[in-house]
Design goal:
About 75% of the residues lie in helices and about 0% in strands. It is mostly helical and about 230 residues long. Helix 1 packs antiparallel against helix 2, helix 4 packs parallel to helix 8 and helix 8 packs antiparallel against helix 9.
């Protein structure tokens, strides 16, 4: 079973690395792809690369390790980067939805609205909000007294799982952390779904024959959103 899991996750992780690097390199070196849509896509690939690298390499190495231990500082760093990259990815998906809305519903104004400054602003804003989200949860967990059990029971260390190891009653803190993450995740998901519906309704009002073309344009983005949020 260890060998089977090692092969499965190694191939999967290698595909993630090569696929995302290929996208980033292609966008950087192809001048025809220096447009908002592809710039956002390249940033999404970088975030996907970072998000996968926070947990998968450690999990693969632990498959053949007799001492599956992580230090307190590394545990905290892993949780922090999981929330930073996860938050940034959600906000980049919103930025890409806005880009698609502008391209489909306001095609004549697309280059004016989605200019390089706006594109850079969306990327920087995604990073700032993602880091702020992670820090807002991290400050509550880092100072908790950990003096009892230290078995997380999973290679994936997240705030709710680690909070339960504290030596105090953490029910209220667990609720706040879970509600915070849940509100951001579900809020982002429903905001994206509503934006898709609004785009398709707007296109249908102008021309029903363009509805299938608009849906085809959005299909890749919708697929990424469902694969990211539903699991």
């Amino acid at each position: 079973m260890q060998v089977l899991l090692f092969l499965f996750f190694s191939v999967l992780y290698l595909g993630i690395i090569l696929g995302n690097l290929f996208i980033v390199v292609t966008v950087i070196f192809n001048s025809y792809l220096h447009t908002p849509m592809y710039v956002l896509l390249a940033n999404l690939s970088l975030i996907d690369l970072a998000l996968s690298s926070t947990t998968v390499p450690r999990m693969i190495s632990d498959l053949f390790s007799d001492c599956q231990i992580i230090s307190f500082h590394n545990c905290m760093l892993q949780m922090f980067f999981i929330h930073v990259t996860g938050g940034v990815e959600m906000l980049l998906l919103i930025a890409m939805a806005y880009d698609r809305y502008t391209a489909i519903c306001k095609p004549l104004h697309y280059l004016t609205i989605m200019n390089p400054k706006m594109c850079m602003f969306l990327v920087v804003a995604a990073w700032i909000i993602g880091v702020t989200h992670a820090v807002s949860q991290f400050v509550f967990v880092i100072n908790l007294p950990f003096c009892g059990p230290n078995n997380v029971g999973s290679f994936y260390r997240d705030f709710p799982r680690v909070i339960k190891l504290a030596c105090i009653d953490t029910y209220k803190l667990e609720f706040v952390v879970t509600a915070n993450s849940g509100f951001i995740s579900m809020g982002t998901f429903f905001l994206l779904i509503i934006s898709y519906i609004f785009i398709l309704i707007t296109v249908r009002r102008h021309s029903s024959k363009h509805l299938s073309k608009a849906f085809f344009t959005l299909s890749a983005h919708i697929t990424v959103v469902f694969l990211f949020f539903l699991p």
